[in-house]
Design a protein that fits this description.
The chain is of the alpha/beta class and 304 residues long. It has 11 helices and 6 strands. The longest helix has 17 residues.
Length: 304
């Protein structure tokens, strides 16, 4: 795993952080990956979970654990399987430091936070800082092991979800918020700061944005900063709204366009978020004469 994937993404960041330290030996465990999709079948998750726990146990005496997670997995039986995984690891590891990285669209939960020593989220969407995020997490873990920092996690759950089309950290309201996150992270005593915009298509109980601030043994400061960040996100909530065009109207509008090409984008089938791009729902509608469109959009489906 280290040989094949240890030069890129979060794992590459873990390796880079280890190389900057003395007397660090990395032991690989398990790497699992899948397309963005629906709920994972419980037996598949159980298999991965059990295998990871076994490999951690087989590693013998260890000083710390680094995990690269997405954070928005769900199964057909669990709303928070990654929280369950971290909880199982925590019970197996005892007080051994456990640090994880998360996608900016992770759904942070009480169980995840409770189980971790520290956590780090991406600061970019589109995601371009995976390597840097991994290196930051590795640095935090090694500093914790050496006793140079004592991470304390403060977090706030924000009762909001926003359209993924506005989750661009290079412009607009999300850029302003992530600039704030960067400013918090540069403050003295702050180990890391993250803002999680969550996958808006999830249908689970503990859903919503989250702000997280990890400090060096200063819980009060972390709580204040996490609260301030969450309030800023809440105030900006309406600026994340977008005007999406219903499919029927979009097809009708193409008749008014002189020339082309015309591109239809199914926003939920987002290839730049690793979805397969195989949704063909719009295609048969485009191939039918405009006079038959009404037949394909019955009144009993108001969402269209």
């Amino acid at each position: 795993m280290l040989d094949r994937y240890g030069h890129e993404n979060q794992l590459g960041g873990f390796v880079a952080a280890a190389r900057s330290e003395e007397d660090v030996e990395l032991v690989s465990t398990l790497r699992a990956w899948a397309w963005a999709c629906g709920r994972v079948e419980q037996p598949a998750f159980d298999c991965v979970k059990d295998e990871l726990l076994k490999r951690v146990e087989d590693a013998g005496r260890i000083d710390g654990v680094l995990l690269a997670l997405h954070g928005s997995m769900v199964t057909d039986q669990l709303d928070d399987p990654e929280g369950e995984l971290l909880d199982a690891l925590r019970r197996q590891l005892g007080e051994t430091p456990l640090v994880a990285t998360f996608d900016l669209h992770a759904n942070m939960t009480a169980l995840k936070v409770k189980s971790l020593t520290a956590l780090v989220g991406y600061h970019t969407s589109p995601h371009t800082d995976l390597f840097e995020t991994g290196r930051k997490a590795g640095t935090i873990l090694f500093s914790t092991i050496r006793g140079n920092v004592r991470p304390r996690i403060a977090w706030r759950k924000i009762s909001m979800i926003t359209p993924a089309e506005s989750h661009n950290t290079m412009k607009g309201p999300f850029k302003d918020l992530m600039d704030m996150v960067g400013g918090i992270e540069r403050q003295e005593g702050v180990v890391s700061a993250s803002l999680f915009a969550v996958q808006p298509w999830l249908d689970i109980q503990e859903l919503g944005w989250s702000s997280v601030v990890v400090t060096d043994d200063d819980q009060n400061k972390g709580e204040q900063l996490a609260e301030s960040l969450s309030q800023s996100a809440w105030r900006a909530r309406r600026s994340f709204l977008v005007d999406r065009i219903p499919v029927r109207r979009a097809i009708e509008e193409t008749g008014k366009i002189d020339g082309g090409p015309v591109v239809f984008c199914d926003s939920a089938d987002s290839t730049n978020a690793e979805s397969p791009g195989d949704s063909t729902f719009v295609l048969p509608l485009c191939l039918r004469p405009a006079s038959t469109i009404q037949h394909w959009f019955p009144s009993e489906i108001p969402s269209l």
